[in-house]
């Protein structure tokens, strides 16, 4: 693969970012190059260097970059003057997406949910879910969980655990929510589900009657914590018992990332509300929706609105993605195989790192290496060797693999080799340094 | 222009929306057809019927639909595997946008602002602004204004006036804000600026020291209320005096809509924070940013983050838009001429309607027809005659013209003829009905 | 007048306060002596010096100190082992108070209100009122007014205007309230009632549907601002129109202070809820209640509770006070005469001070002297001359006379002479200083 | 002891309460008589019937009713025109109280705390503590505990667990607090201290940095849950580690109730803030204060104020109480003996009730009888037999003994006999009913 030619002069490029982009910028600090091209599981920088992408837009690119079928459909749509921006008016593109989503995703799962096209960010879908749960129940309290991440707008942020993000709200108000321990938050021996039940059954616990439980089945930003089926079912049962709605935030864990289309496939639950975003468009375009069980769909027109709700370009690519990957089981089968490979390889890496622990589920996996510093050094070493990968967890202690689900096995192995080598090298260096310090 | 051929069967199409789209859907109720194509100032439905677009995606399509130069650049970008989704990593597309925005927009105005790419919705940029103002000042109170609209996520919603949208929050908490009367909120004779000053100077007024004032220079959703330069300058002065930031929400009024690129051009103010969205991408793609004066840019990396911050497709089209329309004064001159035409025509229409009043500024104009019912009937009649137009204002009492700024004059007149005829017809019918009732 | 003999060594006394009393202490700083005795309108310090009391416990001692009839009844109650603390159990003392209050106060005014004995502070009664209004209406927003003072616990404080007190909440949340301008808050020419109506009628004003309006008819701490009857009636009408309750906080202005028993007597309104405290016990004992119209009395048992609700000592003295002062019109007539005297004398004083303005109503009167510094110096001079008097207003700019209503006319004149002399002296000194500075 | 003669006609008495007292009234429903006299551990109703008082004003009457020495001092004070109401001005009574409190309570314990006289309710002292903790730390979050009770004004209520009381806030905002499990909230096997530590150490737990921990060492209303010394010390350590203040609410458990003057005596902790009320006056008079470590005493004058802060009658009786009961160890020794007797007797009663469990510590003891219905029936049977006693706990499942600490042993036994007989009778009846139902 060769150098791109349309790259801006990198020095000038760097200049403009420093000069004019806000200090809020983040990933570009860890990967200080300018990307100009992307295809499948690879990114290319302005100097023509290729990188294997184990970040995949934080799970927004589950089908990889620039899928040729999606590209073709989108280019046709644009070329043919298809509607790009239509507010929430009916368009043929929206109709096709809804029909396809109904046929391939909802119906086979017996889900009667309606689709609300919210503003095209996951946070916006979460905000809509929170508002709707409060409207439906007439209650205010949303129960969210330790290490949960749901976005950084005021409502979503009130349910997000991360203090760095919460701190960004200044002295702003984050209220109307309660925090409960996630599955295994206190270790394997403590049954947090039971504790939550005790809290809710106790009329003097100080936990107001909940409007909803808001959870991720596998917590992405929070450290790849995967809840057990029993725990998730227990939360659903608790929600039903206490008249609360169950909101499963499937923004990062959905769209095939954990194996099925939804992270809760085959878990025997039926969430009332499901915010979706990230990989939903298939091509990384801004797109989000909220799945709503019809009995809860009590919105009045435009009560929750937004200029970019219903991104028509995304309807086009999302429809292609559904047809291409979810018409039969072959994609899921393929993902399951890769997930097995990933599990085995990460177990091996976990053994390299003293105290290393495998985290996550499906293709949403990582290794807890014990500290954010170590994880960060491993990711840095990976980047130097042409692999893009980041950390997650409360302390950034998890090296997180979010490869495109469509990555071919050879490249996947190549990327995992880089991770393993990086872990080995960094651990060896640390050990040596420790021994020298002890000597 | 003729009928499109790729339309889905309209009956089935309608079916899927009713069956699977949330009750929150809105515009599609007023315009119950399925759109399949759009170019310039025209939309086409699945039966091939064309409509003049005086809605322009609520000012998201200031340059019209599917501008050929933007289309070409976007298709080239896609075809060449340009990055579609890159989180906030550096890309050549982002660099070009920043450079162009700096050169054509910021520098000529002496603005030293940095650009924060927030989640791609206006509400997200507003939430970022509110958080940053609170972080910078260590205060909580954001002062917003009657009839202001800033979005419907919890933070933005706490500053939005509309009770319909606020009601959507259920029993959720909307707090940390104070509400003040906008310019002329109590009529032309009352100096609301003075009243706000009295409130803020009074240590017993109960208005906590403000972190920021958040305002639109021309209120779009609130009824096309245009603040005077004196009033806006007075608010800035008040903000400075009380150690608060000035946030000008230029989401609907910006990008040429009122004549200059910013709605506050030539007003002699220098807002600390400017949320932008809607027409920023040029082509209606989801895209938003917050302009931040460098001294306030105290974000830590990713403190305010979001998966779709920095939409690369939008970088591409926005750059084309800036180059095409803002390299020199010709576009602004053209818009000013159309604005004059619009003013004259709407004054004529205002005279047709008993008590009709001209509202707004530039190409963000409308007629207050006195009641939401009347406004709604006029818009309905327009739609039957091939024109898409909507109402605004607290009671929906304003017939609002948001034509693409690029509309050619002949078509613009054609559309205004439809509005005038509709107003005349509906008013005549109402008068007749009133006379019959009186007889 | 003779020296008291049971005084502690004053130097040691002062020591203990500095050593062990919190910095929150306040009045003792302006009146740095130790008081040991009090009778009628006089206080005596540990050195035997007497002071005329124009503070009257901030209107808690409308009948003066240690009324002999109340003393006798209380001593009999204590001596006879009458219940001192009975939670909210029935006692004979409570029954007698209720019967007397019903017979002498409620029935003659046609008021069907019930009495809720809240915790024995005005703030507690206000908190109960706010909670009940929210419970009754299912709404959250309480509208309070500029310069209103309702107490400093979190709920009451959210309705209190004073920034000094609000600041005491640290970064705590004060929310769920809206602030409106009081009568004449913007001067005599501006009809704030109309503005409030415009705000409430405007569904996009951002003011949520109110649970209640909470107001003082005469604002005590806020600067002796007296609302007109028209304005108060207008607020009641507005409350009815918008389905909100009317709460009149009569804690400082009630119990005869403005002439009638209630400050709203003869105003033609019927408040839904009336928090009372301060002079209600008659003898300065901690005692508060909330008057509640029966239709709003939807409390469940103990839903709002408190250990000291229903102070039986206060029941005893309050009953005596009601019988002694409110059995016929003679007390009210006497108060009216003193109020006239007060008005004339304060008008004279107002003329002494450049820009001086008479404030207040009835025996709740003062002079706005233009600045807190000046007012403070006048009060200091009064104290040096044996008169206890304090300031009020947002800037402490009002010299406030709150003499016991029972003060005999000669002593009242003596006190007013002291105020007048102090005003004259301080103003002369200021004028002289200004002239010297100008020379 | 014989019938009182000054009773009002009971039928009329009852009438007035029904007619004019709010539905919020509570204890009078369980004890539907009118009390007219009280002495020591006995109350007498209007028909002359005597009752043993195992309620003691919810621990406000730890020294019994109408202690003769306190009566005498108070009557002398009143007769001699001692100051009754003095706002927060210096008085001899206040000086004496402070000196005595310093000498007998603070100094012997090495406590350097200052005394803030808040409004005379426990809730007011709690509100002051919450505000001060937020002011000192600049943080908002107050961590409170399951089953905690701290009062029902908005701030205090946000820390109170009981849903009945919280529900009384209507749709009002209770925010800025987090809830944690109290010691043994999940049973004896679960170390909640560890869990709280895990939550606080986890930067993604969603628990904001705390301004303070607010706890009762023995929870009174919450069911007589006594925290272990280890747990309390652990919370203090956690508070220190996280820069938070430790607030021990000693309103119900203090003033000798658990043995020492403070409930935390000999626990090896040094709370930053200690709200006190209830028995502090000694005679049941409204009186509260906040103990504040000097370094946190950053209040500005009157920042937290209140009309009845510093009740001079209470200063007088409280001083007598301190001198009489806390000059040496004899009272504490006596209380310890009674506590032992109580423990033995309640253990016996606990055995009578299937599943019965002893709760509490010192003279703050009770039996968890498993259900609120059963507890309520036992208390009802006690009342019919001349004993006043109430329930506590989240479900009202604890029969709670709060006898005056000064009760003589014979009367104490008599009262306990009544409880035991009532428990036996009700349990037998229940068992019989169950057997008949089964038959």
Cα-based radius of gyration of chain A, to the nearest Å? 22 Å
CATH 2nd-level architecture of the largest domain in chain A: 3-Layer(aba) Sandwich
CATH topology of the largest domain in chain A: Aspartate Aminotransferase, domain 2
Strand order of the largest sheet of chain A: 1-2-3-15
Tell me the span between the first and last alpha carbons of chain A.
Answer: 48 Å
Instruction: Report mean pLDDT of chain A, rounded to a whole number.
Output: 94
Describe it.
- Four copies of one chain form a homotetramer.
- Chain A starts with 9 loop residues before the first helix and ends with a helix.
- Chain A has two domains: 10-62 and 356-438, Alpha-Beta Complex (Aspartate Aminotransferase, domain 1), CATH 3.90.1150; 68-326, Type I PLP-dependent aspartate aminotransferase-like (Major domain) (Aspartate Aminotransferase, domain 2).
- Chain A is built from 14 helices and 17 strands.
- The longest helix of chain A has 30 residues, at 409-438.
- In chain A, the strands form five sheets. A four-stranded mixed β-sheet of chain A has the order 1-2-3-15. The first copy, chain A, has a four-stranded parallel β-sheet with strand order 6-5-7-10. Chain A has a four-stranded antiparallel β-sheet with strand order 13-14-17-16.
- In chain A, a hairpin with a 5-residue loop joins strand 8 and strand 9.
- With 439 residues, chain A is an alpha/beta fold.
- Chains in contact: A-B, A-C, A-D, B-C, B-D, C-D.
- The interface between A and B is large, with 128 and 128 residues.
- Strand 1 (34-39) of chain A pairs parallel with strand 4 of chain B.
């Amino acid at each position: 693969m060769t150098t791109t030619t349309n790259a801006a002069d990198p020095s000038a490029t760097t200049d403009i970012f420093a000069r004019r982009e806000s200090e809020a910028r983040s990933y570009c600090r860890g990967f200080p190059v300018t990307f100009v091209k992307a295809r499948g599981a690879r990114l290319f920088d302005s100097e023509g260097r290729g990188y294997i992408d184990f970040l995949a837009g934080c799970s927004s690119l589950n089908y990889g970059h620039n899928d040729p079928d999606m590209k073709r459909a989108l280019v046709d749509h644009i070329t043919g003057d298809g509607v790009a921006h239509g507010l929430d008016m009916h368009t043929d593109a929206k109709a096709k997406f809804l029909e396809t989503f109904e046929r391939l995703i909802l119906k086979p799962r017996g889900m009667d949910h309606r689709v609300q096209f919210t503003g095209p960010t996951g946070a916006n879908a979460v905000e809509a879910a929170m508002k709707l749960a409060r409207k439906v129940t007439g209650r205010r309290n949303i129960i969210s969980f330790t290490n949960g991440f749901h976005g950084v707008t005021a409502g979503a942020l009130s349910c997000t655990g991360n203090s760095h993000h919460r701190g960004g709200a200044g002295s702003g108000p984050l209220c109307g929510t309660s925090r409960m321990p996630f599955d295994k938050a206190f270790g394997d021996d403590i049954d947090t589900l039971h504790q939550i039940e005790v809290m809710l059954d106790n009329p003097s616990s100080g936990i107001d009657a909940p409007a909803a439980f808001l959870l991720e089945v596998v917590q992405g930003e929070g450290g790849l914590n995967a809840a057990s089926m029993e725990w998730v079912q227990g939360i659903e049962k608790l929600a039903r018992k206490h008249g609360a709605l169950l909101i499963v935030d499937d923004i990062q864990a959905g769209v095939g990332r954990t194996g099925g289309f939804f992270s809760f496939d085959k878990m025997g639950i039926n969430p009332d509300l499901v915010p979706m975003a990230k990989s939903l468009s298939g091509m990384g375009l801004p797109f989000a929706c909220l799945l709503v069980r019809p009995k809860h769909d009590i919105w009045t027109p435009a009560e929750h609105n937004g200029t970019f709700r219903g991104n028509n370009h995304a309807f086009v690519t999302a429809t292609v993605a559904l047809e291409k990957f979810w018409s039969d089981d072959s994609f899921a089968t393929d993902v399951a195989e890769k997930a097995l490979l990933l599990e085995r390889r990460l177990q091996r890496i976990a053994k390299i790192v003293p105290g290393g622990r495998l985290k996550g589920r499906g293709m949403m996996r990582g290794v807890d290496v014990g500290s954010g510093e170590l994880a960060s050094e491993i990711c840095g070493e990976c980047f130097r060797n042409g692999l893009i990968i980041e950390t997650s967890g409360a302390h950034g202690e998890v090296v997180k693999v979010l490869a495109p689900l469509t990555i071919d096995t050879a490249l996947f192995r190549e990327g995992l080799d880089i991770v393993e080598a990086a872990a080995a090298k960094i651990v060896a260096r640390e050990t040596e340094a420790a021994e020298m310090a002890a000597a």
